[in-house]
Design goal:
By secondary structure, the chain is of the alpha+beta class. 51% of the residues lie in helices and 12% in strands. It contains five helices and four strands, in the order H-H-E-E-H-E-H-E-H. Strands 1-2-4-3 form a four-stranded antiparallel beta sheet, covered by helices on one side. Helix 1 packs across helix 2 and helix 3 crosses helix 5. The longest helix is centred in the N-terminal third of the chain and has 28 residues. The model has no long low-confidence stretch (mean pLDDT 89).
């Protein structure tokens, strides 16, 4: 059973790949997943960056083309506690984000967000463009 389950777990991502061998299918699948999540993340970053009350933390997705970067952003909304942002996004838009200091209390203190922390959002292989739009729309409403 374990071997059959392991094989299936490998073949699922490989099923979206486009190559002859299993290894090459998996590689092309992960390349496609990365390309898609990078595009969604750029849309998320740019949407949030267009909101005057939002401060983004971390390197922009285009700051080092080709460099590995997790499709996750930390941000604050001026004058709004991160827990309020997270709660309102969930209640009003069905968008679920994390908030807090994420075990980085010293960094939060040095960056001036130690009381509230950050809001953190990211893109996964199952994230849709509509979800990114709902996040940006929700943050825009909260910030106004």
């Amino acid at each position: 059973e374990a071997l059959a389950g392991t094989t299936a777990a490998i073949d699922v991502p490989g099923s979206i790949g486009t190559a002859a061998s299993r290894r090459a299918r998996i590689e092309t699948a992960y390349d496609a997943i990365h390309e898609r999540s990078s595009a969604l993340f750029a849309s998320m970053w740019n949407g949030l960056a267009s909101i005057p009350a939002v401060t983004l933390y971390g390197p922009a997705p285009t700051s080092a083309p080709g460099a590995p970067r997790a499709p996750t952003v930390a941000f604050t909304v001026k004058g709004v506690d991160s827990s309020v942002v997270a709660t309102r996004l969930a209640a009003e838009g069905g968008v679920f984000v994390s908030n807090g200091r994420f075990y980085a209390a010293t960094l939060a203190e040095r960056m001036g967000v130690s009381r509230s922390g950050w809001v953190r959002a990211g893109c996964a292989c199952y994230t849709t463009g509509g979800e990114v739009e709902r996040l940006v729309r929700g943050v825009r409403a909260i910030s106004s």
